[in-house]
Amino acid sequence: MYRSAPVVSPEDIRLEFIIESPQLIRINYPAINIGFKLFEQVRVEFEKVPRPWQYDCMFNMLPFQGHILFDELDAFRESWYRMVGDRDIGRKVASVSVDPLTAERFETYKVLFPTRVFRLFHTVAEAYAWLGTD
Fold first, then answer.
1. pLDDT tens digits, residue range 14-47?
2. In angstroms, rounded to a whole number, what is the distance separating the alpha carbons of residues 68 and 101?
3. Which domain holds residue 58?
4. Interatomic CA distance for residues 24 and 131, integer angstroms
5. What's the pTM value of the predicted model, to 2 decimals?
């Protein structure tokens, strides 16, 4: 009997939430979004962080192959503003992606989170430079 190796590894579906410094949280998206709500996971992780409004964020979406539903993003927005209010005014969010759909939908993030400053980058190095952590 022959059985192939798994096509999807645990690393492919794991979200990484990393507090890199007193002012930066990096969120590495999984390669594949199967069977869990990505922004529900993000919300759970942010709830563990004291004063999450004090952090800039980098969303590294480079390995991501999937789709995030607008309803899921909107639910995250509601929970974010219950937790943070407008205390995050001016904090930066760097999104890193080469996916054309992400670029097309990028304005939606700015509308949903008007208190933050968003920029889209093609490399993590560019994002770090903008965030002032290069």
1. 789 999 999 999 999 887 766 567 888 899 999 9
2. 11
3. 13-131
4. 8
5. 0.87
